[in-house]
Each structure stands twice: as C-alpha cells, then as structure tokens.
Amino acid sequence: MKKAKLPLSRSFQIGKIDKRIYGSFIEHLGRAVYGGIYEPGHATADEDGFRQDVLSEVRALNVPIVRYPGGNFVSGYNWEDGVGPVEQRPKRLELAWGVTEPNTFGTNEFLKWCKKAGSECMMAVNLGLRGADAARNLVEYCNHPQGSYYSDLRIKHGVKEPHNIKLWCLGNEMDGDWQIGHKTAYEYGRAAAEAAKVMRWVDPSIELVLCGSSNGHTDTFGDWELTTLDLAYDKVDYVSLHQYYDNKTDDTASFLAKNMAMDEFIKTVIAICDTVKGKKHKKHTVNLSFDEWNVWYHSNDDYVERWSTAPHQLEDVYNFQDALLVGLMLISLLRRADRVKVACLAQLVNVIAPIMTETGGGLFRQTIFYPFMHMSNYGRGTALVSQIACGKHDSKEFTDVPDLDGIAVLSDDENELTVFAVNRDMEESYALELDLLDFPDFVPVEHIEMAGFDRKAENALVSCPVKPSNAALPEVDGRTATAELRPLSWNVLRFQKKQKD
Ligand code: AHR
User: Fold this and answer.
1) Label partner for 208 (CA 20 to 30 A): which of 164, 362, 375, 474?
2) Looking at the whole model, is its pTM more than 0.90?
3) Is 294 in the pocket of ligand 1 (CB under 6 A)?
C-alpha cells in the first residue's frame, strides 16, 4: 500500500466557510421546474404543486441558497410574465433553449418553494434584452415592504411580506455569443454598473454579483474581468465564475485532474479582482461567486422538439467517476474558502443534476448526489490548510497530479473534524496518516467511502448501485490516525472530540 501524510492543526486556517458555498441552481430549463420541483397532480404534490419527494431530497442535500431563474433563460425573461393570476400569464417562445415557457411558475412560487426547501433565493436579473429599469422594478417588487406600485402589486398578488432577497446576479454569461443580448465587456460593464446603482437605491442591503467569464478558456477570459471590474468595481460584491468539465476523450486520469484547472481559474480571478482593487486604491474586496459548476457532457447532443414545454433536456446520467470529480471540485472550492463565498452546483433537479425524477413517477439519487451531500452536511465551519504529502503522476493533459486530494474542516463548535479525500490512483490503495497535531482528544467516529465501483457505473430509477458505505475506522496510534483510501475512492473521515465523563 502507498503511504501519505496529512498534518492538521487548528492554527493553520484557510478561512471560515460561507455556507452559501453549498448553493445550487434551478433554471427554467427542461424539467427542472415543470416535472422537477413543481408538478401539480403528482402523487406527492402538496397544496402548492411542489413535489414533496423532491423537497425531501433537496433538504437531505442541505442547500442554503438556490440561484433562479437562469442561466441563459434569464436573458430573455420578463419577470412580470411570471407573477399575478396564473390564468392571465402569457405563454412565451423561450429563445435560449428553443421551447415554450408556460409561466405557470414564477417568482412568488419559487420563493415559496425556497421556504419549504430551507433555502434562500439568489435572484438573477435580465441584462440581456432588458436592463436597469426592469431590474430595479423586480427589486422593488420583491423587497420593498409596501406603499409603491410594485410592492403593492406583490401584495395584490397575495404576498404581504417582502421576500427580502439579499443576493442578486447582474445577468448571466453576458460574454457568450449564445447569450440573448450578448454584450462586449464595455457594454456589459456599463449596463451592470447602472443596474447595480439603481437596484441598490431601491434596497441598499442587497449584495450583487457581476458576470465574469462563462468559463476559464474563452478568448476574452481575463480581459473581460479586468474591463468589467474596472467599470463596476465599486458597485459589486462578487464576480461570477462558471465551469463545467467533461470526459469526452474517455481519459479518466486527465478527467480526475481537472479540478487543478479549476484551482488555477480561481487563483487567476482572485488576482484580477485584487489588481483592480489595487489600481483603484479601494478598501473593499470583491470576492468570488462560483455560481455554475459541475460535470456536463453526457446529454449534449440530445434532440429536443422545438417549442415543446418542459422536454427532457440536459438530463445527464452521471457515473462513478463523475462523482469523484464533483467531490474534487468541492475540495477546490473549499481550498479557497477565504475568497469563494458563494457557489452553485448546476443544477439541482433533472437538468445536469444530482436529483432525477420521472414526470408522474419516482426519483433517484445520481452518483454526484453523495459527495455534495457529505460536504454540505459535514463541511461547515473552518477550512484548514490541508497539504497532503503523497505520490504524483502525469496524465495526458496534466503533469504532477497528486494521487490524493483533500481538505479538512473544523466545525464551528470545534467538536468535529472532518477530512474529505479522493484517491485518484486507479490501481493502489493509500494509507493516509493524519497527524492530529493539536487534536489530541479527537477520536474517529465514521469513515464513509464510495469505492470499488466500475468508473462508468451509474444509478437509475430501477436501481442505484453507486452509493456510499461505511469503511473501517482509521487506526489510532498516539496522535496519528491512519485510514485506508482505496483506489478511485471518495472518503469522508469524521472525528469527534471525546466527551469528558
Ligand atoms: O446550466 C446550464 C447552462 O449553462 C446555463 O443556462 C448557462 O448559464 C450555462 O451556459
């Protein structure tokens, strides 16, 4: 067995983990809303038409914030179409995904769903075909208590109390030419700055996310962030990052190293934010909102009937190696918990999602459900510096890939220490020796693992073979605890402080 070491100390802290790092995303796309979270008439639907089987899975994932309503969808969306009496709402041709949007579900329904899910809403405004005016009206509709046209309209629509949405996205992927109302960096920077200004005038307590690049490989990446931040720095709190990875070349070694590219992406965006901060002599720091991330490729070429409603769209069925990369991407997010304050697994239900439903039927947990659930539930508190000494390997796309990657988290009450780790080695186990430098009174209580599956094994409605199980607890010797990390495995090592008698 190969050997690795991880020294852990409560003095070496990356930073406090903002719980919103475990956010997710619901877009009006495919069956995310219709047939996903919302299906009146379904056997489990409640009085609002929300599927309770889905709600219960969302609660298991413990998702503190959900981005809505898009995505590409938002750039053509009139938010006014989705409020008020349902029978009066218009059906619209939805240009982003080539379907018909019935608008029977909109802002107030989503906010109600969020409450039931135990989540907050991260609301995106349309800076594609619309702009500052529609955006400030939506803030007024959602957040102003009463006594103005839009706040009173909300009350007329049956919602007395304001929604008080705190976090707002200034559009979506405005750098991409696929985006409805795509803009140059200068055009977007100015539009975002003006929208931000008036949105804050309506509600000064809101936080705003500027659109960064659609991924770290676009021709304009870097320049886009520099130009837009130069124009809007004072007006925003976060800049967004989006990134999806795939394994189209069927090269597992390179696929499982892709979170190293994510590390670089994050590092570069931080550098750009701080460059603009320095250039402008500002005190205020712009942080990162990684508000779309996941594996996405299995469903890319799916045929969708034009102008249909809620078709099967982007319904990736994930396999075991996808779950490992999702765990690795979460590790990368926590590694920069000092600057990544918000992140959204894209998406939540049916569309490139951990939860898959059958319209009119049941649901199942995809493979990627589990690492997210583990980290969202046990990865709250403070991220600790986690430098693992282990072997390295090269893949076709990456060099010096550490065989192991991981992160340790100390809970807020300092009674729980959890190590999340992936063994990327496809052949050999590792004995990971944790040096619990100043955790002498901590004992192992659980080792959850996902291991031993074919890398292409998937879950389905009929059977879900890919799931976690309990492995042997780490062996304790003095202040070290040694756990076996099997080849190609996801591991959650949980320690608790011994209770005094
Ligand atoms: O999440 C699916 C799509 O991916 C989103 O609509 C868009 O923002 C991104 O390109």
Assistant:
1) 375
2) yes
3) no
Q: Summarize pLDDT for 291-300 with one digit per residue, the tens.
A: 999 999 988 7
127, 174 Cβ separation under 8 angstroms = yes
Q: What angle do CA 463, 464, 469 make, to 5 degrees?
A: 140
The mean predicted confidence, pLDDT, of the chain is: 97
Ligand 1 neighbour 292 (Cβ under 6 A): yes
Pick the closest to residue 324 from 497, 177, 175, 490 (CA basis). 490
Task: Spot the catalytic one: 39, 120, 173, 458.
Answer: 173
| Confidence band of 134 (pLDDT split at 50, 70, 90) | very high
- The DSSP symbol for 460 reads -
**Separation CA 183–CA 172 (nearest Å):** 11
Nearest-CA residue for atom 8 of ligand 1: 71
Find the length of the chain. 501
Taking the CA of residue 72 as reference, the ligand 1 atom at the shortest distance is 6
Active site (annotated) includes residue 475? no
* Confidence at residue 501, expressed as pLDDT on a 0 to 100 scale: 67
Distance 194 CA to ligand 1 centre (A): 24
What whole-number distance in Å separates Cα of residue 470 and Cα of residue 468? 7
173 lines ligand 1 (CB under 6 A): yes
Q: What's the pLDDT at 300?
A: 74
Q: Report how far residue 302's alpha carbon sits from residue 286's, in angstroms, rounded to the nearest whole number.
A: 38
Select from 168, 198, 170, 182 the least CA-distant residue to 128. 182
Strand 430-436 versus strand 442-450 pairing type: unpaired
Per-residue pLDDT tens digits for 187-202: 999 999 999 999 999 9
Gap from CA of 80 to ligand 1 centroid (Å) = 22
